[in-house]
Amino acid sequence: MKKIIAVAALCMSVFSYGQVHLGAKAGVNLNKLDGKNFNSNFELGYQLGGFATVNFTDFLGVQGELLFNQTNTKVADNYRDVFNSAFKKGKTLNYISVPVLLRLNSEGLITVVAGPQFSFLASGNQSVLENGKKLFKKTDFAFIAGAEINIKPLTVYARYIWGFSDVSNFGGKANSQQIQAGLSLRLF
């Protein structure tokens, strides 16, 4: 019981300090799956979601996000004969992503962000044939590094995301890579 009271007191002190901010964000993704079975070009997608930021000081903070990420990729041309007759080469993977980012210079004009991202496959644009053979794994783990320009209440951001998990269930290993850019609006 004492631990619950201590956690509640800590949460109340953070909220009363006025350093908790909520907002919405949207932007574009340039995605690719880095593996021998996939085209090595970046494909266009999008992301949409919300965030919560807790600033411990003007310099240091933490930001959690909940995003819907669309990743597009194409099966590599060297598998054309096999895959063209079975299903389309283009794939759309929809992920629910949860980044947890450390924020440096959190209340300054330029903020640097870095941290892990956990993603869960929501859908994989599957045809009838693909339902029998699942082509992609259900989770992805990645690391994010990027920067934000804060023009309160708007923020312009850019990030690079390195995937560490193998997301392919067929052929060789494939890791996701993503470039994100977008706008966020701090609601309060």
TrEMBL record:
Residues 19-168 form the Outer membrane protein beta-barrel domain. Keywords: Signal. The keyword Ligase does not apply. It comes from the Bacteria. Pfam families: OMP_b-brl_2. Residues 1-18 form the signal peptide. InterPro entries: Beta-barrel_OMP_2 (IPR025665), OMP/PagP_B-barrel (IPR011250). This is PorT family protein.
